[in-house]
Amino acid sequence: MALAPEQEGAEAASGVFPPFDPTYFPSQLFWLAISFVVLYFALDRFILPKLKTTIEDRRDRIADDLDEAAKAKADAEAAGEAYEQSLAEARAKAHGIAADTRAALDKELAKESAAVEAELAEKQAAAEASIRAAKDKAFAEVRGIAATATAAAVTALANVEISDDDAGKAVDGAMKGA
Question: What are the C-alpha distances in Å from 161 to residues 6, 147, 166?
Fold first, then answer.
């Protein structure tokens, strides 16, 4: 069953997607214009000013935060410099205290060394005097022994008896000559 050409055009026109149908173009353009105007005024009056203030507030907040960060950085650097300066002062003070302590200890050590040396010198002098006395005593005893031995030797060899005084004089003469 074949359709007449007029019926074919009506069927073809009714088979088109309505938004692409040219018969609806004027009403679509009318509603497009109304929607555009309503959206434009809504954006212009309500949405864009809020976005603009939000962006400006955010920009101001970021600028304030950057200023605060720069201020905090400057404060931190100043605190670091103050710390370094106080540390250097503390080191210098510690070195001064150490030098003073070292000097005081050196003086005290010198005093103690001098006292010990004086004590040792006294002990040495006393020891030398004691040794001298012991030596003199030993020489006196040796002289006595030598005088007795000389008297005994002369008596044994020469059959002559001599006194201890004469034997002592002979020993003294021999010691002076030696």
Answer: 196, 13, 10
